């Protein structure tokens, strides 16, 4: 089995939850993919990092992150996976706040500076693309060049992200989850 196969098994075992829920987009669904159960899991996080690095291996970027909270463990997993590969690739991670911070350094984007850098915007799962596109807007305002968007599970955001002029990839689609 491949890392992708192992990751899909964990997504199905740990993250797919049946029951009526309201998504961050405001849409109502009869099932939910709680990927924090996967991205913060001892076996899931390393797989997330490796699978997403493989997914975007042909894209040139040196920092990864997105809107807090869904993107944070994804970016961290990718940072650690890149370091563990021993190829010498240096990948930084960053966190995009939902709004400007009112104290301290008052930064909207935490971590290494993204100005002038090629970055990848990530999310655990995306239905409308709203969260990741909010992150992209903040990254562009901070002077970053966003090379694309990658998510673990696409619930329908691809069209909106591509309409915004961005490349988009997902490790899994709803069809992969049997939906």
TrEMBL record:
5-phospho-alpha-D-ribose 1-diphosphate binds at residues 97-98, 101, 103, 123-131. InterPro entries: OPRT (IPR023031), Or_phspho_trans_dom (IPR004467), PRTase-like (IPR029057), PRTase_dom (IPR000836). Keywords: Glycosyltransferase, Magnesium, Pyrimidine biosynthesis, Transferase. One of its GO terms (biological process) is pyrimidine nucleobase biosynthetic process. It is an enzyme of class 2 (transferase). CDD domains: PRTases_typeI. Pathway: Pyrimidine metabolism; UMP biosynthesis via de novo pathway; UMP from orotate: step 1/2. One of its GO terms (molecular function) is orotate phosphoribosyltransferase activity. Its EC number is 2.4.2.10. It catalyses: orotidine 5'-phosphate + diphosphate = orotate + 5-phospho-alpha-D-ribose 1-diphosphate. Orotate binds at residues 127, 155. Belongs to the purine/pyrimidine phosphoribosyltransferase family. PyrE subfamily. Homodimer. This is Orotate phosphoribosyltransferase. It comes from Dactylosporangium aurantiacum. The gene is pyrE.
